[in-house]
Design brief:
single chain, alpha/beta, Enolase-like, domain 1, TIM Barrel, 6-stranded parallel sheet, 3-stranded antiparallel sheet, 12 helices, 9 strands, Mandelate_racemase_C
């Protein structure tokens, strides 16, 4: 079996309302799917993380940079293909868009193998460890409104998420330390003290502001504080992890086993959040997962994409063993 073509499909639709997070607002959602065809008629599908115009850049990398390197290769030789591409691009792209592009291709290669073997993906990843995957609700995106209006919107949405029986929920912050704590306090009051609540700053803060916000979160029983500082700031992560009681979560902007090795060996996070569509695909995710497990760091995957991304993550979590194990283990959420 040989790869005959690789195509990118950038999907885009307009949102009813302009939404955002601490780094930008946007009016459209984008998804970037990768389609790999073979001479046996088997087609594999993958997805690349990277919103907006980033998807257009990744499309070019997939079709014009990576495709010439691997066209004609046996798609089941996933490890060989991964390293052939990475080694070819290493001088120009150890992180970022080249790895996001490679991620979508790698996921599509696993899809081809799964179809060729006539087995669900989770069987190829080690088999079924979980029959059910708990799901958390995600909403409360930032909007260009005064904090008083955001409070009203966030409280309404939080109540709706809770009523739908999600096991937990996550909200955005990043409009400023004091206003952020007002938002979190309002949501906590709306859903009660016992409901699991997470906050995501999308690396909005310097260390000083992150500590201020984190100490406020400690008083509100927040389950995790996601991406409090820039992904490059390993020392900042370490400091926050030492000084705060709230779990520090991160990793969606980390790439490959090499980057994750630094994040983990520096003891930066309490909860690892690998993004399979960005860090290098399933081949690399398995290595990152092994790194986290060998350091007893729980994994809760970062997921932000289409139904394809959700499906891939369902298979990953279905095959994920309990860690460290027991009769009543804490299960990773989707």
């Amino acid at each position: 079996v040989k790869i005959t073509s690789i195509k990118s499909h950038v999907l885009r639709y307009e949102l009813e309302d302009e939404l955002g997070y601490s780094q930008q607002y946007y009016k459209h959602r984008t998804a970037h799917l990768v389609e790999i065809e073979t001479d046996e008629g088997i087609t594999g599908w993958g997805e690349c993380f990277g919103p907006g115009n980033i998807a257009l850049a990744n499309k070019f990398i997939v079709e014009k940079v990576i495709q010439p390197l691997i066209k004609g290769e046996n798609p089941t030789n996933k490890e060989y293909i991964w390293h052939k591409v990475y080694n070819s691009l290493r001088d120009s792209g150890q992180k970022g868009m080249p790895i996001q592009a490679l991620s979508g291709i790698d996921i599509a290669l696993w899809d081809i193998l799964s179809k060729k073997a006539n087995l669900p993906l989770y069987q190829l990843l080690g088999g079924k460890c979980n029959n059910q995957i708990p799901v958390y609700g995600y909403g409360m995106m930032l909007q260009k409104k005064p904090v008083e209006q955001l409070i009203e919107l966030f409280q309404k949405e939080a109540k709706e998420i809770k009523e739908k029986n999600f096991k937990a929920m996550k909200m955005k912050i990043g409009i400023g330390p004091k206003d952020d704590l007002k938002l979190v306090k309002a949501v906590r009051e709306a859903i009660g003290d016992d409901y699991k609540l997470m906050v995501d700053a999308n690396h909005a803060y310097n260390l000083s502001d992150a500590l201020y916000v984190g100490k406020g979160l400690d008083e509100m029983n927040i389950y995790w504080f996601e991406e409090p500082v820039a992904p490059e700031d390993y020392e900042g992560y370490k400091e926050l992890k030492k000084k705060l009681n709230t779990n520090i979560a991160g990793g969606e902007a980390e790439f490959t086993k090499y980057g994750w090795n630094q994040l983990i060996k520096n003891r930066c996070v309490d909860i690892a959040q690998p993004e399979v569509c960005g860090l290098g695909g399933i081949t690399e995710y398995l290595k990152v997962s092994a790194l986290a497990q060998s350091n007893f760091i729980p994994i809760i995957n970062h997921v932000w994409g289409s139904a394809l991304s959700i499906a891939v993550n369902l298979h990953l979590l279905t095959s994920m063993p309990d860690m460290p194990g027991g009769l009543f283990p804490s299960k990773p959420m989707l």
